[in-house]
From TrEMBL, chains A, B:
GO terms for molecular function: 4-amino-4-deoxychorismate lyase activity. Belongs to the class-IV pyridoxal-phosphate-dependent aminotransferase family. Keywords: Lyase. One of its GO terms (cellular component) is cytosol. The keyword Lyase applies. PANTHER family: AMINO-ACID AMINOTRANSFERASE (PTHR42743), AMINODEOXYCHORISMATE LYASE (PTHR42743:SF11). Its EC number is 4.1.3.38. It comes from Cryobacterium luteum. InterPro entries: Aminotrans_IV, Aminotransferase-like, BCAT-like_C, BCAT-like_N, Class-IV_PLP-Dep_Aminotrnsfr. This is Aminodeoxychorismate lyase. GO terms for biological process: carboxylic acid biosynthetic process.
Length: 295, 295
Protein backbone atom coordinates (compact mmCIF):
# COMPACT_ATOMS: atom_id res chain seq x y z
CA UNK A 1 0.00 0.00 0.00
CA UNK A 2 2.90 2.33 -0.69
CA UNK A 3 3.58 4.91 -3.35
CA UNK A 4 5.26 5.18 -5.73
CA UNK A 5 4.39 1.74 -7.01
CA UNK A 6 6.05 0.11 -10.02
CA UNK A 7 4.98 -2.98 -11.93
CA UNK A 8 7.02 -4.41 -14.78
CA UNK A 9 4.88 -6.20 -17.34
CA UNK A 10 5.81 -8.84 -19.92
CA UNK A 11 3.46 -7.96 -22.78
CA UNK A 12 1.49 -10.86 -24.24
CA UNK A 13 0.14 -10.69 -27.81
CA UNK A 14 -3.27 -9.13 -28.38
CA UNK A 15 -4.65 -12.47 -29.60
CA UNK A 16 -3.30 -14.53 -26.71
CA UNK A 17 -5.80 -16.94 -25.16
CA UNK A 18 -4.20 -16.41 -21.77
CA UNK A 19 -6.61 -15.25 -19.04
CA UNK A 20 -4.46 -15.36 -15.93
CA UNK A 21 -1.74 -12.76 -16.21
CA UNK A 22 -0.36 -12.87 -12.66
CA UNK A 23 2.93 -14.39 -13.79
CA UNK A 24 3.41 -11.59 -16.37
CA UNK A 25 3.60 -8.90 -13.65
CA UNK A 26 6.66 -8.18 -11.55
CA UNK A 27 6.30 -5.68 -8.74
CA UNK A 28 9.49 -3.83 -7.98
CA UNK A 29 10.99 -1.14 -5.80
CA UNK A 30 10.32 2.19 -7.57
CA UNK A 31 13.64 3.62 -6.40
CA UNK A 32 15.59 0.77 -8.01
CA UNK A 33 16.80 0.82 -11.61
CA UNK A 34 14.36 -1.00 -13.86
CA UNK A 35 15.35 -0.17 -17.43
CA UNK A 36 18.49 -0.82 -19.43
CA UNK A 37 20.22 2.10 -21.15
CA UNK A 38 19.59 0.28 -24.45
CA UNK A 39 15.81 0.84 -24.00
CA UNK A 40 14.39 2.55 -27.08
CA UNK A 41 11.97 4.40 -24.80
CA UNK A 42 14.93 6.30 -23.42
CA UNK A 43 17.20 6.32 -26.50
CA UNK A 44 14.53 7.40 -28.99
CA UNK A 45 11.39 8.33 -27.05
CA UNK A 46 10.11 5.31 -28.96
CA UNK A 47 7.09 4.06 -27.08
CA UNK A 48 3.58 5.07 -26.08
CA UNK A 49 1.84 5.80 -22.82
CA UNK A 50 -1.36 6.67 -21.01
CA UNK A 51 -1.96 8.25 -17.63
CA UNK A 52 -5.18 7.68 -15.74
CA UNK A 53 -6.41 8.82 -12.34
CA UNK A 54 -7.15 6.52 -9.45
CA UNK A 55 -9.50 8.34 -7.07
CA UNK A 56 -10.20 6.77 -3.70
CA UNK A 57 -9.33 3.36 -5.08
CA UNK A 58 -11.27 3.71 -8.35
CA UNK A 59 -9.32 3.77 -11.61
CA UNK A 60 -11.04 6.13 -14.01
CA UNK A 61 -11.67 5.82 -17.74
CA UNK A 62 -9.83 2.50 -17.92
CA UNK A 63 -11.40 1.39 -21.21
CA UNK A 64 -10.89 4.70 -23.08
CA UNK A 65 -7.23 4.76 -21.97
CA UNK A 66 -6.60 1.15 -23.03
CA UNK A 67 -8.39 1.81 -26.30
CA UNK A 68 -6.25 4.87 -26.97
CA UNK A 69 -3.06 2.95 -26.09
CA UNK A 70 -4.05 0.34 -28.66
CA UNK A 71 -4.68 3.06 -31.23
CA UNK A 72 -1.28 4.65 -30.50
CA UNK A 73 0.33 1.23 -30.95
CA UNK A 74 -1.23 0.87 -34.40
CA UNK A 75 0.01 4.30 -35.48
CA UNK A 76 3.51 3.53 -34.17
CA UNK A 77 3.55 -0.05 -35.51
CA UNK A 78 4.07 -1.48 -32.06
CA UNK A 79 2.54 -4.83 -31.16
CA UNK A 80 -1.06 -4.04 -30.25
CA UNK A 81 -1.49 -4.35 -26.49
CA UNK A 82 -3.62 -7.13 -25.06
CA UNK A 83 -6.53 -5.23 -23.50
CA UNK A 84 -7.31 -7.99 -21.02
CA UNK A 85 -3.71 -8.04 -19.76
CA UNK A 86 -3.68 -4.27 -19.27
CA UNK A 87 -7.03 -4.37 -17.47
CA UNK A 88 -5.56 -7.03 -15.18
CA UNK A 89 -2.35 -5.04 -14.62
CA UNK A 90 -4.30 -1.90 -13.73
CA UNK A 91 -6.59 -3.84 -11.40
CA UNK A 92 -3.60 -5.48 -9.72
CA UNK A 93 -1.87 -2.13 -9.28
CA UNK A 94 -5.00 -0.54 -7.87
CA UNK A 95 -5.26 -3.37 -5.33
CA UNK A 96 -1.72 -2.59 -4.18
CA UNK A 97 -1.91 1.19 -3.72
CA UNK A 98 -3.70 3.40 -1.17
CA UNK A 99 -7.49 3.40 -1.40
CA UNK A 100 -7.83 7.08 -0.50
CA UNK A 101 -6.73 10.19 -2.35
CA UNK A 102 -5.81 10.92 -5.95
CA UNK A 103 -3.13 8.88 -7.66
CA UNK A 104 -1.67 9.19 -11.17
CA UNK A 105 -1.21 5.81 -12.81
CA UNK A 106 0.96 5.88 -15.91
CA UNK A 107 1.35 2.90 -18.19
CA UNK A 108 3.96 2.59 -20.87
CA UNK A 109 4.65 0.31 -23.83
CA UNK A 110 8.19 0.72 -25.19
CA UNK A 111 9.64 -0.75 -28.36
CA UNK A 112 12.06 -2.47 -26.01
CA UNK A 113 15.79 -2.82 -25.93
CA UNK A 114 17.50 -2.00 -29.23
CA UNK A 115 17.78 -5.15 -31.35
CA UNK A 116 16.00 -6.89 -28.49
CA UNK A 117 13.39 -9.55 -28.99
CA UNK A 118 10.31 -7.85 -27.62
CA UNK A 119 8.70 -4.67 -26.39
CA UNK A 120 8.86 -3.84 -22.73
CA UNK A 121 6.06 -2.45 -20.61
CA UNK A 122 5.52 -1.10 -17.17
CA UNK A 123 3.07 0.71 -14.98
CA UNK A 124 3.96 3.36 -12.43
CA UNK A 125 1.67 4.89 -9.80
CA UNK A 126 2.50 8.01 -7.80
CA UNK A 127 0.54 10.43 -5.63
CA UNK A 128 -1.03 13.08 -7.86
CA UNK A 129 0.15 16.63 -7.37
CA UNK A 130 -2.26 18.77 -5.34
CA UNK A 131 -4.36 20.44 -8.03
CA UNK A 132 -6.91 22.00 -5.65
CA UNK A 133 -5.59 25.52 -6.26
CA UNK A 134 -5.72 25.40 -10.08
CA UNK A 135 -9.08 23.65 -10.02
CA UNK A 136 -10.42 26.51 -7.88
CA UNK A 137 -8.51 29.43 -9.39
CA UNK A 138 -7.94 28.41 -12.99
CA UNK A 139 -4.87 28.65 -15.19
CA UNK A 140 -3.26 31.43 -17.20
CA UNK A 141 -2.66 30.19 -20.72
CA UNK A 142 -0.65 31.30 -23.73
CA UNK A 143 -1.17 30.20 -27.31
CA UNK A 144 1.83 28.73 -29.12
CA UNK A 145 2.31 27.77 -32.75
CA UNK A 146 2.74 23.98 -33.00
CA UNK A 147 4.49 24.54 -36.32
CA UNK A 148 2.17 22.33 -38.38
CA UNK A 149 -0.58 23.41 -40.75
CA UNK A 150 -4.03 21.89 -40.28
CA UNK A 151 -4.42 18.59 -42.10
CA UNK A 152 -0.75 17.65 -41.97
CA UNK A 153 -1.38 14.50 -39.95
CA UNK A 154 -3.50 12.98 -42.69
CA UNK A 155 -0.88 13.77 -45.34
CA UNK A 156 2.12 12.74 -43.22
CA UNK A 157 1.23 9.84 -40.91
CA UNK A 158 4.93 9.36 -40.10
CA UNK A 159 4.64 12.47 -37.92
CA UNK A 160 2.74 10.18 -35.50
CA UNK A 161 0.28 12.89 -34.59
CA UNK A 162 -2.70 11.26 -32.94
CA UNK A 163 -0.41 8.81 -31.14
CA UNK A 164 0.50 9.48 -27.52
CA UNK A 165 4.22 8.74 -27.82
CA UNK A 166 6.98 9.13 -25.26
CA UNK A 167 8.57 11.80 -27.50
CA UNK A 168 7.20 14.66 -25.41
CA UNK A 169 10.20 17.01 -25.32
CA UNK A 170 8.29 19.66 -27.31
CA UNK A 171 5.28 19.39 -25.03
CA UNK A 172 7.52 19.96 -22.01
CA UNK A 173 9.28 22.88 -23.73
CA UNK A 174 5.90 24.50 -24.45
CA UNK A 175 5.03 24.41 -20.74
CA UNK A 176 8.43 25.94 -19.88
CA UNK A 177 7.71 28.68 -22.44
CA UNK A 178 4.39 29.37 -20.69
CA UNK A 179 6.18 29.69 -17.35
CA UNK A 180 8.72 32.03 -18.89
CA UNK A 181 5.85 34.27 -20.00
CA UNK A 182 4.29 34.25 -16.53
CA UNK A 183 1.58 31.75 -17.45
CA UNK A 184 0.78 28.20 -16.38
CA UNK A 185 -0.04 26.30 -19.53
CA UNK A 186 -0.27 26.39 -23.31
CA UNK A 187 -2.83 25.94 -26.07
CA UNK A 188 -1.22 24.80 -29.32
CA UNK A 189 -2.39 26.36 -32.60
CA UNK A 190 -1.77 25.18 -36.14
CA UNK A 191 0.34 27.55 -38.25
CA UNK A 192 -2.89 28.52 -40.02
CA UNK A 193 -4.66 29.49 -36.82
CA UNK A 194 -6.74 26.54 -35.67
CA UNK A 195 -6.97 25.43 -32.05
CA UNK A 196 -5.34 22.03 -31.39
CA UNK A 197 -4.86 20.94 -27.79
CA UNK A 198 -2.70 21.60 -24.75
CA UNK A 199 0.66 19.85 -24.30
CA UNK A 200 -0.98 17.52 -21.77
CA UNK A 201 -4.68 18.37 -22.05
CA UNK A 202 -7.70 18.77 -24.32
CA UNK A 203 -9.29 22.16 -24.97
CA UNK A 204 -13.06 22.62 -24.52
CA UNK A 205 -14.70 25.95 -25.36
CA UNK A 206 -18.18 27.33 -24.75
CA UNK A 207 -19.16 29.32 -27.84
CA UNK A 208 -22.61 30.90 -27.94
CA UNK A 209 -23.78 28.47 -25.28
CA UNK A 210 -22.55 25.35 -27.08
CA UNK A 211 -19.63 23.23 -25.82
CA UNK A 212 -17.10 22.61 -28.54
CA UNK A 213 -13.76 20.81 -28.82
CA UNK A 214 -11.52 20.59 -31.89
CA UNK A 215 -12.49 17.49 -33.83
CA UNK A 216 -10.19 14.60 -32.90
CA UNK A 217 -8.27 13.80 -36.05
CA UNK A 218 -4.92 12.50 -37.05
CA UNK A 219 -3.50 15.57 -35.33
CA UNK A 220 -5.45 15.78 -32.09
CA UNK A 221 -5.70 13.15 -29.37
CA UNK A 222 -9.23 12.16 -28.43
CA UNK A 223 -9.24 13.26 -24.81
CA UNK A 224 -10.61 10.68 -22.40
CA UNK A 225 -11.62 13.31 -19.83
CA UNK A 226 -13.02 15.57 -22.56
CA UNK A 227 -15.32 12.66 -23.48
CA UNK A 228 -16.41 12.35 -19.84
CA UNK A 229 -17.01 16.11 -19.75
CA UNK A 230 -19.22 15.83 -22.83
CA UNK A 231 -21.12 12.94 -21.19
CA UNK A 232 -21.77 15.18 -18.19
CA UNK A 233 -22.82 18.15 -20.31
CA UNK A 234 -25.14 16.05 -22.47
CA UNK A 235 -26.78 14.68 -19.31
CA UNK A 236 -27.33 18.29 -18.25
CA UNK A 237 -29.10 18.95 -21.55
CA UNK A 238 -26.27 21.03 -23.01
CA UNK A 239 -25.31 20.94 -26.66
CA UNK A 240 -21.84 19.57 -27.50
CA UNK A 241 -19.95 19.46 -30.78
CA UNK A 242 -16.68 18.32 -32.33
CA UNK A 243 -15.54 20.74 -35.01
CA UNK A 244 -12.74 22.99 -36.21
CA UNK A 245 -12.18 25.99 -33.96
CA UNK A 246 -10.24 29.07 -35.07
CA UNK A 247 -8.04 31.16 -32.82
CA UNK A 248 -10.52 34.02 -33.26
CA UNK A 249 -13.28 31.82 -31.86
CA UNK A 250 -10.96 30.94 -28.98
CA UNK A 251 -10.40 34.62 -28.17
CA UNK A 252 -14.14 35.36 -28.24
CA UNK A 253 -15.32 32.20 -26.44
CA UNK A 254 -17.66 32.50 -23.42
CA UNK A 255 -15.35 30.23 -21.44
CA UNK A 256 -12.52 27.77 -22.05
CA UNK A 257 -11.31 24.72 -20.11
CA UNK A 258 -8.22 22.58 -20.22
CA UNK A 259 -9.20 19.04 -19.42
CA UNK A 260 -6.97 16.10 -18.54
CA UNK A 261 -7.08 12.83 -16.65
CA UNK A 262 -5.36 13.75 -13.40
CA UNK A 263 -5.64 17.54 -13.11
CA UNK A 264 -9.23 17.20 -14.44
CA UNK A 265 -10.98 20.42 -15.59
CA UNK A 266 -9.40 23.82 -15.05
CA UNK A 267 -10.78 27.18 -16.17
CA UNK A 268 -8.71 29.37 -18.44
CA UNK A 269 -8.64 32.70 -16.56
CA UNK A 270 -6.12 34.54 -18.74
CA UNK A 271 -5.25 34.11 -22.42
CA UNK A 272 -2.03 35.55 -23.85
CA UNK A 273 -1.76 38.00 -20.96
CA UNK A 274 -5.37 39.25 -20.93
CA UNK A 275 -8.02 38.29 -18.41
CA UNK A 276 -10.45 35.72 -19.73
CA UNK A 277 -14.01 34.98 -18.56
CA UNK A 278 -14.44 31.75 -16.61
CA UNK A 279 -17.43 29.73 -15.46
CA UNK A 280 -16.00 28.53 -12.18
CA UNK A 281 -19.34 27.16 -11.00
CA UNK A 282 -19.38 24.75 -13.92
CA UNK A 283 -15.72 23.86 -13.35
CA UNK A 284 -16.52 23.00 -9.74
CA UNK A 285 -19.56 20.92 -10.68
CA UNK A 286 -17.62 19.16 -13.37
CA UNK A 287 -14.75 18.24 -11.08
CA UNK A 288 -17.16 17.02 -8.43
CA UNK A 289 -18.68 14.78 -11.10
CA UNK A 290 -15.30 13.61 -12.41
CA UNK A 291 -13.97 12.81 -8.93
CA UNK A 292 -17.11 10.91 -7.93
CA UNK A 293 -17.06 8.47 -10.85
CA UNK A 294 -16.58 4.90 -9.74
CA UNK A 295 -15.88 3.34 -13.13
CA UNK B 1 37.51 -4.71 -23.22
CA UNK B 2 34.02 -5.95 -23.75
CA UNK B 3 31.07 -4.55 -25.63
CA UNK B 4 28.50 -3.29 -24.98
CA UNK B 5 30.02 -0.99 -22.40
CA UNK B 6 28.00 1.28 -20.11
CA UNK B 7 29.20 4.13 -17.95
CA UNK B 8 26.88 6.05 -15.65
CA UNK B 9 27.99 9.63 -15.11
CA UNK B 10 27.17 12.08 -12.33
CA UNK B 11 27.11 15.39 -14.22
CA UNK B 12 29.12 18.20 -12.66
CA UNK B 13 28.27 21.85 -13.41
CA UNK B 14 29.86 23.48 -16.45
CA UNK B 15 31.74 25.94 -14.22
CA UNK B 16 33.09 23.32 -11.81
CA UNK B 17 36.78 23.64 -10.98
CA UNK B 18 37.04 19.86 -10.72
CA UNK B 19 39.69 18.29 -12.96
CA UNK B 20 39.69 14.67 -11.82
CA UNK B 21 36.38 13.11 -12.74
CA UNK B 22 37.16 9.45 -12.02
CA UNK B 23 34.80 9.37 -9.05
CA UNK B 24 31.94 10.71 -11.18
CA UNK B 25 31.97 7.64 -13.49
CA UNK B 26 30.41 4.31 -12.62
CA UNK B 27 30.98 1.45 -15.01
CA UNK B 28 28.18 -1.06 -15.04
CA UNK B 29 26.96 -4.25 -16.66
CA UNK B 30 25.11 -3.21 -19.84
CA UNK B 31 22.59 -6.00 -19.45
CA UNK B 32 21.58 -4.82 -15.98
CA UNK B 33 18.86 -2.25 -15.35
CA UNK B 34 20.37 1.21 -14.97
CA UNK B 35 17.48 3.67 -15.12
CA UNK B 36 14.43 4.19 -12.97
CA UNK B 37 11.00 4.22 -14.60
CA UNK B 38 10.63 7.79 -13.29
CA UNK B 39 13.41 8.93 -15.67
CA UNK B 40 12.19 11.81 -17.80
CA UNK B 41 14.32 10.47 -20.66
CA UNK B 42 11.97 7.52 -20.85
CA UNK B 43 8.74 9.17 -19.69
CA UNK B 44 9.00 12.24 -21.91
CA UNK B 45 11.92 11.74 -24.31
CA UNK B 46 13.25 14.67 -22.30
CA UNK B 47 16.99 14.67 -22.75
CA UNK B 48 19.65 15.11 -25.40
CA UNK B 49 22.27 12.88 -26.96
CA UNK B 50 25.18 12.50 -29.34
CA UNK B 51 26.62 9.47 -31.06
CA UNK B 52 30.22 9.38 -32.19
CA UNK B 53 32.32 6.72 -33.84
CA UNK B 54 35.34 5.06 -32.26
CA UNK B 55 37.48 3.61 -35.05
CA UNK B 56 40.37 1.38 -34.08
CA UNK B 57 40.51 3.01 -30.67
CA UNK B 58 40.21 6.61 -31.89
CA UNK B 59 37.07 8.55 -30.92
CA UNK B 60 36.14 10.83 -33.80
CA UNK B 61 34.89 14.41 -33.77
CA UNK B 62 34.88 14.54 -29.98
CA UNK B 63 34.89 18.34 -29.75
CA UNK B 64 32.13 18.96 -32.33
CA UNK B 65 29.94 16.38 -30.58
CA UNK B 66 30.52 17.86 -27.12
CA UNK B 67 29.93 21.32 -28.53
CA UNK B 68 26.63 20.25 -30.10
CA UNK B 69 25.56 18.53 -26.86
CA UNK B 70 26.14 21.81 -25.05
CA UNK B 71 24.14 23.68 -27.69
CA UNK B 72 21.28 21.17 -27.39
CA UNK B 73 21.35 21.66 -23.62
CA UNK B 74 20.95 25.42 -24.03
CA UNK B 75 17.98 24.99 -26.38
CA UNK B 76 16.36 22.51 -23.99
CA UNK B 77 17.22 24.50 -20.84
CA UNK B 78 19.18 21.62 -19.38
CA UNK B 79 22.26 22.30 -17.25
CA UNK B 80 25.05 22.92 -19.75
CA UNK B 81 27.39 19.91 -19.76
CA UNK B 82 30.91 20.27 -18.41
CA UNK B 83 33.03 19.76 -21.54
CA UNK B 84 36.06 18.59 -19.58
CA UNK B 85 34.02 15.94 -17.77
CA UNK B 86 32.58 14.61 -21.03
CA UNK B 87 36.02 14.54 -22.63
CA UNK B 88 37.25 12.55 -19.64
CA UNK B 89 34.25 10.19 -19.77
CA UNK B 90 34.77 9.52 -23.48
CA UNK B 91 38.50 8.96 -22.97
CA UNK B 92 37.80 6.59 -20.09
CA UNK B 93 35.26 4.65 -22.14
CA UNK B 94 37.61 4.44 -25.10
CA UNK B 95 40.30 3.01 -22.81
CA UNK B 96 37.90 0.27 -21.73
CA UNK B 97 36.61 -0.92 -25.12
CA UNK B 98 38.24 -2.87 -27.97
CA UNK B 99 40.96 -1.00 -29.84
CA UNK B 100 40.06 -2.52 -33.21
CA UNK B 101 36.97 -2.11 -35.34
CA UNK B 102 34.14 0.41 -35.46
CA UNK B 103 32.18 1.20 -32.33
CA UNK B 104 29.20 3.51 -31.82
CA UNK B 105 29.53 5.53 -28.64
CA UNK B 106 26.33 7.24 -27.57
CA UNK B 107 26.23 9.78 -24.76
CA UNK B 108 23.07 11.02 -23.14
CA UNK B 109 22.07 13.81 -20.77
CA UNK B 110 18.57 13.34 -19.36
CA UNK B 111 16.55 15.80 -17.30
CA UNK B 112 16.68 13.11 -14.63
CA UNK B 113 14.08 11.49 -12.47
CA UNK B 114 10.79 13.39 -12.30
CA UNK B 115 10.89 15.84 -9.38
CA UNK B 116 14.42 14.57 -8.80
CA UNK B 117 17.29 16.78 -7.78
CA UNK B 118 19.54 16.54 -10.81
CA UNK B 119 19.95 15.43 -14.39
CA UNK B 120 21.30 11.97 -15.10
CA UNK B 121 23.84 11.05 -17.73
CA UNK B 122 25.35 7.99 -19.24
CA UNK B 123 27.48 6.73 -22.06
CA UNK B 124 26.93 3.52 -23.96
CA UNK B 125 29.27 1.88 -26.46
CA UNK B 126 28.28 -0.94 -28.78
CA UNK B 127 29.77 -2.54 -31.88
CA UNK B 128 28.68 -0.56 -34.94
CA UNK B 129 26.46 -2.32 -37.43
CA UNK B 130 28.34 -3.53 -40.51
CA UNK B 131 27.85 -0.67 -42.97
CA UNK B 132 30.26 -1.97 -45.61
CA UNK B 133 27.43 -2.86 -48.01
CA UNK B 134 25.67 0.53 -47.90
CA UNK B 135 28.99 2.37 -48.05
CA UNK B 136 29.80 0.42 -51.23
CA UNK B 137 26.35 0.20 -52.80
CA UNK B 138 24.56 3.32 -51.56
CA UNK B 139 21.06 3.81 -50.21
CA UNK B 140 17.64 4.19 -51.78
CA UNK B 141 15.98 7.26 -50.37
CA UNK B 142 12.48 8.71 -50.27
CA UNK B 143 11.57 12.32 -49.53
CA UNK B 144 9.07 12.91 -46.73
CA UNK B 145 7.32 16.06 -45.60
CA UNK B 146 8.53 16.99 -42.09
CA UNK B 147 5.31 18.97 -41.67
CA UNK B 148 6.99 22.28 -40.86
CA UNK B 149 7.40 25.30 -43.13
CA UNK B 150 10.87 26.79 -43.54
CA UNK B 151 11.70 29.31 -40.83
CA UNK B 152 9.42 27.80 -38.19
CA UNK B 153 12.30 27.06 -35.82
CA UNK B 154 13.19 30.73 -35.51
CA UNK B 155 9.57 31.69 -34.85
CA UNK B 156 8.84 28.80 -32.51
CA UNK B 157 11.93 27.86 -30.46
CA UNK B 158 9.78 25.65 -28.19
CA UNK B 159 9.73 23.14 -31.09
CA UNK B 160 13.36 22.41 -30.08
CA UNK B 161 14.47 22.07 -33.68
CA UNK B 162 18.23 22.34 -33.78
CA UNK B 163 18.49 20.35 -30.55
CA UNK B 164 19.30 16.67 -30.73
CA UNK B 165 16.70 15.47 -28.25
CA UNK B 166 15.74 11.94 -27.24
CA UNK B 167 12.27 12.56 -28.73
CA UNK B 168 13.08 10.67 -31.91
CA UNK B 169 9.86 8.72 -32.45
CA UNK B 170 9.12 10.65 -35.66
CA UNK B 171 12.63 10.05 -36.98
CA UNK B 172 12.23 6.33 -36.40
CA UNK B 173 8.76 6.35 -38.03
CA UNK B 174 10.21 8.07 -41.10
CA UNK B 175 12.75 5.27 -41.51
CA UNK B 176 9.97 2.68 -41.16
CA UNK B 177 8.02 4.55 -43.85
CA UNK B 178 11.09 4.33 -46.13
CA UNK B 179 11.28 0.58 -45.57
CA UNK B 180 7.57 0.24 -46.29
CA UNK B 181 8.20 1.91 -49.66
CA UNK B 182 11.10 -0.39 -50.46
CA UNK B 183 13.76 2.20 -49.65
CA UNK B 184 16.45 2.47 -46.98
CA UNK B 185 16.31 6.01 -45.70
CA UNK B 186 14.56 9.36 -45.84
CA UNK B 187 15.29 12.98 -46.67
CA UNK B 188 12.97 15.34 -44.84
CA UNK B 189 11.52 18.34 -46.72
CA UNK B 190 9.81 21.40 -45.33
CA UNK B 191 6.13 21.76 -46.28
CA UNK B 192 7.24 24.47 -48.71
CA UNK B 193 9.73 22.25 -50.49
CA UNK B 194 13.17 22.86 -49.01
CA UNK B 195 15.62 20.09 -48.20
CA UNK B 196 16.23 19.62 -44.46
CA UNK B 197 18.15 16.54 -43.32
CA UNK B 198 17.76 12.82 -42.88
CA UNK B 199 16.24 11.36 -39.69
CA UNK B 200 19.75 10.43 -38.52
CA UNK B 201 22.01 12.10 -41.11
CA UNK B 202 22.95 15.29 -42.92
CA UNK B 203 22.34 15.76 -46.63
CA UNK B 204 25.17 16.91 -48.91
CA UNK B 205 24.53 17.59 -52.60
CA UNK B 206 26.81 18.27 -55.55
CA UNK B 207 25.14 20.90 -57.71
CA UNK B 208 26.96 22.13 -60.81
CA UNK B 209 30.23 20.94 -59.32
CA UNK B 210 29.79 22.68 -55.97
CA UNK B 211 29.17 20.80 -52.70
CA UNK B 212 26.18 22.18 -50.85
CA UNK B 213 24.34 21.38 -47.63
CA UNK B 214 21.24 23.11 -46.28
CA UNK B 215 22.35 25.95 -44.04
CA UNK B 216 22.35 24.82 -40.41
CA UNK B 217 19.71 26.89 -38.70
CA UNK B 218 17.28 26.60 -35.91
CA UNK B 219 15.73 23.75 -37.88
CA UNK B 220 18.71 21.75 -39.08
CA UNK B 221 21.41 20.13 -36.96
CA UNK B 222 24.94 21.10 -37.87
CA UNK B 223 26.28 17.70 -38.90
CA UNK B 224 29.63 16.84 -37.39
CA UNK B 225 30.52 14.43 -40.20
CA UNK B 226 29.22 16.88 -42.82
CA UNK B 227 31.75 19.37 -41.42
CA UNK B 228 34.51 16.77 -41.76
CA UNK B 229 33.37 16.07 -45.32
CA UNK B 230 33.60 19.78 -46.12
CA UNK B 231 37.10 19.88 -44.57
CA UNK B 232 38.10 17.05 -46.88
CA UNK B 233 36.52 18.63 -49.95
CA UNK B 234 38.10 22.03 -49.25
CA UNK B 235 41.50 20.35 -48.91
CA UNK B 236 40.88 18.82 -52.35
CA UNK B 237 40.23 22.31 -53.73
CA UNK B 238 36.50 21.82 -54.12
CA UNK B 239 33.98 24.57 -53.52
CA UNK B 240 31.56 24.09 -50.60
CA UNK B 241 28.58 26.14 -49.50
CA UNK B 242 25.86 26.30 -46.87
CA UNK B 243 22.61 27.54 -48.38
CA UNK B 244 18.93 26.83 -48.90
CA UNK B 245 18.31 23.92 -51.25
CA UNK B 246 14.97 23.29 -52.94
CA UNK B 247 13.53 19.88 -53.69
CA UNK B 248 13.91 20.68 -57.42
CA UNK B 249 17.64 21.19 -56.89
CA UNK B 250 17.74 17.89 -55.02
CA UNK B 251 16.11 16.07 -57.94
CA UNK B 252 18.54 17.60 -60.45
CA UNK B 253 21.71 17.30 -58.33
CA UNK B 254 24.82 15.65 -59.79
CA UNK B 255 25.10 13.46 -56.71
CA UNK B 256 23.75 13.33 -53.15
CA UNK B 257 25.16 11.84 -49.95
CA UNK B 258 23.71 11.07 -46.54
CA UNK B 259 26.41 11.65 -43.98
CA UNK B 260 26.46 10.60 -40.32
CA UNK B 261 28.91 9.78 -37.57
CA UNK B 262 28.85 6.01 -37.57
CA UNK B 263 27.54 4.99 -41.00
CA UNK B 264 29.72 7.78 -42.47
CA UNK B 265 29.04 8.79 -46.11
CA UNK B 266 26.65 6.82 -48.28
CA UNK B 267 25.64 7.63 -51.86
CA UNK B 268 22.00 8.15 -52.69
CA UNK B 269 21.43 5.69 -55.58
CA UNK B 270 17.64 6.05 -55.87
CA UNK B 271 15.35 8.94 -55.02
CA UNK B 272 11.60 8.42 -54.66
CA UNK B 273 11.78 5.24 -56.68
CA UNK B 274 13.94 6.49 -59.56
CA UNK B 275 17.60 5.70 -60.09
CA UNK B 276 19.87 8.53 -59.06
CA UNK B 277 23.45 9.24 -60.22
CA UNK B 278 26.15 8.50 -57.65
CA UNK B 279 29.85 9.31 -57.40
CA UNK B 280 30.95 6.14 -55.70
CA UNK B 281 34.65 6.91 -56.19
CA UNK B 282 34.27 10.03 -54.08
CA UNK B 283 32.19 8.14 -51.50
CA UNK B 284 34.97 5.56 -51.20
CA UNK B 285 37.69 8.21 -50.89
CA UNK B 286 35.65 10.09 -48.36
CA UNK B 287 35.06 7.06 -46.16
CA UNK B 288 38.73 6.12 -46.35
CA UNK B 289 39.50 9.63 -45.13
CA UNK B 290 36.83 9.57 -42.41
CA UNK B 291 37.92 6.15 -41.10
CA UNK B 292 41.60 7.13 -41.03
CA UNK B 293 41.19 10.20 -38.83
CA UNK B 294 42.95 9.86 -35.53
CA UNK B 295 41.42 12.85 -33.76
Amino acid sequence: MRLPFTLLIDPVPADSLQHDFADTFHEMDSSAPALRVGELSTQRGDGIFETLAVVNGHPQEVEPHISRLRNSARICELPVPNAEQWRAAIAYAVSRIPQRGEIALKFVLSRGVEHGPAPTAWLHAAAAADFSAVRADGVRVITLDRGYPRGVAEKAPWLLMGAKTLSYAVNMAAIREAHRRGADDTIFLTTDGFVMEGPTSSVVLRIAGEYVTPAPSGAILHGTTQQSMFDYLRAQGASVDYRDVTVDELRRADAVWLVSSVRLAVSVVALDGSDFPADQALTDALNTYLLARTA
